[in-house]
Design a protein that fits this description.
By secondary structure, this protein is of the alpha+beta class. The protein has one domain: Double Stranded RNA Binding Domain (2-Layer Sandwich), CATH 3.30.160. Helices cover 25% and strands 28% of the residues. The protein is built from 7 helices and 10 strands. Strands 3-2-4-7-8-1-9-10 form an 8-stranded mixed sheet, sandwiched between helices. It has a two-stranded antiparallel ribbon with strand order 5-6. The longest helix is centred in the first third of the chain and has 13 residues. The radius of gyration is 20 Å and the shape is globular. The termini are far apart.
Length: 250
């Protein structure tokens, strides 16, 4: 029954084009901060965190913006929150930041599990469900939640998403080949009818105020649909924000 739900959702992937051209896009922002990350003071422009940037291996895409443009957008967004890249003047990084961006599409396969010719049992296998649920809900997707909420998250993933992801590690531990995760930020939007180079700058700017700060449930923001990576955006409007259940926020 669960796989049949997916089959009903799939035809809705192109819903953005049904009633005219898109003017806004809904951005989902999810940031998880680990116990190690919560021990660290929050950066400020006056007392910044120095980071060593690393770009993950990326799939070559015709609709992707130039890598140097994405690096500039990320550096500007991080600087606004008190994160500055390593340089001759700031040569002692404390965090290693891994950047990744692209499109994540659902991999769904029809499965014929028939008992015999008279009794077909049809279904679908969502091979990368956990990866897409992590993108739209972070660690919350791994825990228990009402069925209707999980189905809503699965619908978000089935349509495919453009995303940018930042993962922060302790730099000194990384030099010793140890991974000490500090925080993990994911910012994404539906990819149906939209090219990556039309929304990536929007995603980075929308996510900036939340980098390194726990969000709890996803922050949902409606932003103008901005073509060609332009970053002159107005103030975002928060559509929904649910604070962490324990009332804490870093």
């Amino acid at each position: 029954m669960r796989w049949m739900t997916l089959a009903l959702v799939l035809p809705l992937a192109g819903r953005a084009e049904l009633f005219g051209p898109r003017t806004t896009t809904q951005v989902r922002i999810v940031v998880d901060v680990t116990a190690e990350g919560r021990k660290l003071p929050s950066p400020t422009v006056e007392k910044p965190v120095v980071y060593f940037p690393v770009t993950a291996e990326l799939e070559e895409r015709a609709d992707a913006p130039a890598r140097q443009d994405v690096h500039r957008w990320l550096a500007q967004a991080l600087a606004s929150q008190g994160y500055i890249p390593v340089s001759p003047e700031h040569d002692r990084p404390s965090q290693l930041l891994v950047f990744e961006w692209g499109e994540m599409e659902p991999r769904i396969e029809d499965i014929d599990g028939r008992v015999d010719e008279e009794n077909p049992i049809l279904g679908q296998k969502f091979w990368n469900e956990s990866e897409l649920l992590d993108l739209v809900a972070g660690q919350r997707a791994q825990g228990p939640m009402p069925w209707w909420k999980r189905e809503g998250l699965r619908r978000e993933g089935v349509a495919g998403r453009h995303f940018v992801r930042l993962v922060a590690y302790d730099y000194e531990a990384a030099k010793k080949q140890r991974k000490v995760l500090l925080w993990h930020a994911r910012v994404s939007t539906h990819s149906d009818g939209v090219k990556l180079n039309e929304v990536l700058a929007t995603l980075i700017k929308a996510g900036a105020p939340h980098f390194g700060r726990q969000t709890g449930d996803p922050v949902l923001i409606h932003l103008p649909y901005v073509p060609a990576g332009r970053v002159e955006l107005g103030d975002p409007t928060v559509e929904e924000y649910l604070p962490p259940s324990d009332g804490t926020k870093k």
